[in-house]
Amino acid sequence: MNKNFYITTPIYYPSAKPHMGHAYSSIIADFFARIKKIQGSKVFFLTGTDEHGLKIQRAAEKKNMKPKDFCDEISITFRDLSKTLNLSNNDFIRTTEKRHFVSVQNLWNILENKKEIYLSKYSGWYSVSDEAFYSDDEIIDEDGIKKSKSSGSLVEWVEEESYFFKLSNWEKPLLKYYEENPNFIMPESRKNEVVSFVKSGLKDLSVSRKSFSWGIKVPSNPNHVIYVWLDALTNYLSALNYPDTNDKLFKDFWPASVHLIGKDILRFHAVYWPAFLLAANIPLPKRVYGHGWILSGDEKMSKSKGNILDPIEIIKKYGLDPLRYYLIKEVSFGNDGNISKEKLESCINSDLANNYGNLCQRVFAFNEKNLKLEIPSKIKFNDSDLVILNNFDKNYDNLISFIDNQDINSYINFIVQQLFTANKYFNDEEPWKKKGDEERLGTIIYVSLELIRKITILLYPIIPTSALKILNAFEINENEIDFKSIKSNNFLNLGQKIKKINILFKKIEKND
Ligand code: MSP
Fold first, then answer.
1. CATH number of 343-487
2. Residue 12 in contact with ligand 1 by CB distance below 6 A
3. Rounded Cα–Cα distance for residues 267 and 269 (Å)
């Protein structure tokens, strides 16, 4: 079994400051990177910024800046956001870096040498906002204004000399690939969209522009810059030191395990990208997962709509882990979801402060008072203790399959159930009434601590900072977290000291 795991986020356009949609893609990718790491995989997690193309050139012009200076300024805000979100990324790539130029031009040369690219003329619609070409039937006319049907963004008519990629040749191989690799595109509904798009016929794709210069030049014809999506998609290879396919990083991590993307950029990742790779004879990524959007009201959050929720402000007010938890739990993964302050506050109060935080607090405080922060040394599980503890072992294979199928919803539902069970156990067992029975009292505390440990390991990829506070109290360091250990019912050493914990999540009162 290949234990290496390579996960990518989309590389973000530094045309404006990052927003909640960007934070969402990154947090989900971080969840998978962390969980794979504690499962013992060697992980490479990549994120970065997509800095070429007309969209960026125009955004820079608006500010009277050179595109590179403009990108330098905004790319930093994305890099900072990665830190603010506590991402465990191994690299942050910028498409203006030399390593990326080399990689893109190499891929271009391969495609050109294989006669997959030819020179012709493009005339048709182009959306600068999406950096996408659209055919007539993908356009709507609203009071004389032409827009893309799918994204609603403005399109303009373009007529210029352009290189074309023979996408039409790859229609059948792509359909065959989707059929033979039924999990290549996830979730299922997105796969169906892609398959029907490809079945409706693929036209050759314009892959260069001549009317502006902000991009990577076509090596054989520097009057052209390479289409920004061909440029951008190649970042996934550049970060592994492509074209050096003998490089350790490349050998260890290509093909990518999951390209995590938003549903709006599915066509680029699930049609164009695999077609480029098939044409260049490079192995295809194993999976493309198209998640839904974070909506503000009923609409996608975007700069042009002016309905952006700033992740930094939310984090300042509520903390990072609550935001991570909310986005992972309350947005049904794969579908669109909503975030509002009211919903976030109620989630913090019910799940984090009450269910998880309070459980930890009560058990640790009870232990401190009665056992002086020591893991009990005399214990004997009864049948019902074992049933509760064994839930984790019993569901272990399910959990692994949830993770491998990106079924985050089932994964977190399991955690919530176990939290409920653990709280109920502590309440029903009433350890405060067992003061004369040292063994039973010790056992209840031991079981409760074990449940907290197991649940906390499951929570670690979601709320790493808070989870680490608890794991550290058990003397478990970050690099020692072992997912498998949730199967064990006797992980905690009898008689060992634990550390006092502070309140993890403060309840938000109405007037805060
Ligand atoms: N630069 C391209 C991606 C190139 S990848 C080779 C791009 N950038 S983007 O900044 O516009 O969007 C990046 C990601 O953020 C996309 O996956 C997009 O779906 C996601 N989101 C942008 N707004 C979003 C929401 N409101 N909600 C969730 N994600 C959305 O596209």
1. 1.10.730.10
2. yes
3. 6
